[in-house]
Amino acid sequence: MDLSTPLPLRLHRGAPTPLAVQLAGQVRDLVASGALTTGSRLPSSRALATDLGVARAVVEQAYDQLRAEGWLTSRRGSGTYVAALGRAPAHRIPARHASAPPATAAAGGRRRIVLDTGTPWQDPRLRAGWRRAWRDVAAAPLPSGYPDPAGLRELRAEIAAYVARTRGVLCRPEEVMVTAGTTHAVGLVLAALGSGSLAVEDPGYRAAVATARQSGWRVLDVPVDRDGLDVTHLAAAADDVRAVYVTPAHQHPLGVTLSAGRRVALLAEARRRGALVLEDDYDSEFRYDVAPVPALTALDRDQSVYLGTASKLLHPALRIGWLVAPAHLVAELARLRAERHDHAPWPVQRALLTLLGEGHLDKSVRAARRVYAERGALVEDRLARFGSLARPVAGMYATLLLPGPVADAVVAEGAAAGVDVPALADYSRSSGRTGLVVGFGGVSDEELDTALDVLAAALRRAT
Ligand SMILES: Cc1ncc(COP(=O)(O)O)c(C=O)c1O
Question: Does 220 lie in the same domain as 145?
Answer without folding.
Answer: yes
